[in-house]
Structures are given as C-alpha cells and as structure tokens.
Amino acid sequence: MIPRLNSVATAQTRARYNRIAPVYDLMQAMGERRQRPWRQRLWSLVEGPRVLEVGVGTGMNMEFYRPELLVTAVDLTPAMLERARKRARTLGLAVDLHLGDVQALEFPDASFDSAAATCVFCSVPDPVLGLQELRRVVRPGGQVLLLEHMRSASRVLAALMDLANPVVVRMMGANINRRTVDNVRRAGLALEAVEDLAFGGIFKLIRARATGG
C-alpha cells in the first residue's frame, strides 16, 4: 500500500513552526551549546558534491557547509525559510533554498549524492514517508545522515515521554517519542551506523545508505 500524505497534519505542522519562527533560535539557544559539535560532526561526514538538507529551519547548519558542497535546502515553513535566506546572505553562501515538504519532494529520482537532516524527523507528520522520499532522491549507494532525538530505551523514561508527548507537540511541534532508527529501517534505507550522543541514547547520529528499487 502506497502511503498517502496527511495534508491536515502537514498544515498543522507548518502553522506551528510559522508561529514559533520569530523566537525559534532563542528557544534553541541553550540546547544548541551541546548540539553545535554534533552538527559540525555530521557535516564533516557528508559526501558531495550534490547535497540535500531537509528541514533547514533558520539555517543553523549553514556555518558547517563545506565550500565544495553544492547544497540544496528545503523547509516546510515560509517564516523559517525566510530566516534561512537571511542567514545565507549574512554568511555569503550560495545555497539553493526551496519551500518544500520532505514527504513529497519535488526532485527527480537520484538527484543527490547525500541528504542530511538535524532534529527534523521528530516533526514530520509521516516520518517513514519522508525517509522514503530521501531514499528516492538520493542516488543508490548515496548517504543519508540524521541527527535526531528519539524515544528512550528506558521503559520508565519512555513511558514518561509518551505521556508528555501530546503537550510537547502542541507547544513545540516536535514529537519526543519517535522510534527513528526503526523508521529508517522501515523506509528501506540501509543502516550503516548508529552513534549514541547523549542522555542514554536519546540523541543519536544515524548513518544510512539509499538503496535502489
């Protein structure tokens, strides 16, 4: 059965991030002190030259784009994308920025050598559909790199995350109980490595490869 885009959930996600866009960087400031080295590490691993960043947000990863990479970046939310455009101009970067939905990317098959996302698939309404789209637009054997937070392996903490998730989603737009490693497998991507970064593996760096077919 071919997954179908949930347009209502997608519109809700867009509205949430449009609402918080003016204060998004401020909201992320405390966590960014820890996450900044993780972002830098992810981008040091990216294989080019053709790279897709999905969920570019306000452009927090842009300072880590290497000069030899040809980066195309998309975001679901106009207000976030406008901030990314401003950041690209400030940094003097030639980034091809697009309004777009990772669940329905407007790129031909095998358009990119790599795709990257940082703390994105916690917010995508159908994460498996989005990951399947990355598998489609990345050439067979190409990279998919993800920095994500997800449901704890601890039964007690996982239960608390499940309980709190509906409130967090309404306030912040992000799910805190996603099983992203499982979703990568379900999307047909080939897992290469999963690196636990912090908080007992809640934050992970996931390295995968696109597969043909």
List the helices and strands and how they pair.
Elements: H1 7-20, H2 24-45, E1 50-54, E2 70-75, H3 78-91, E3 96-99, E4 112-118, H4 127-137, E5 138-149, H5 155-172, H6 180-186, E6 190-198, E7 203-209
Parallel strand pairs: 1-2, 1-4, 2-3, 4-5
Antiparallel strand pairs: 5-7, 6-7
Helix pairs in contact: 4-6
Short description:
By secondary structure, the chain is α/β, with parallel strands linked by helices. It has helices spanning 7-20, 24-45, 78-91, 127-137, 155-172, 180-186; strands at residues 50-54, 70-75, 96-99, 112-118, 138-149, 190-198, 203-209. It has a seven-stranded mixed β-sheet with strand order 3-2-1-4-5-7-6, sandwiched between helices.
CA radius of gyration is: 16 Å
The DSSP helix count reads 6
Strand arrangement, major sheet: 3-2-1-4-5-7-6
Largest sheet: 7 strands, mixed
Shape: globular
Q: Any overview of this molecule?
A:
The protein is α/β, with parallel strands linked by helices and 213 residues long. It has one domain: 3-Layer(aba) Sandwich (Rossmann fold). The chain contains six helices and seven strands. Strands 3-2-1-4-5-7-6 form a seven-stranded mixed β-sheet, sandwiched between helices. Helix 4 crosses helix 6. The protein is globular, with a radius of gyration of 16 Å. The mean pLDDT is 92.
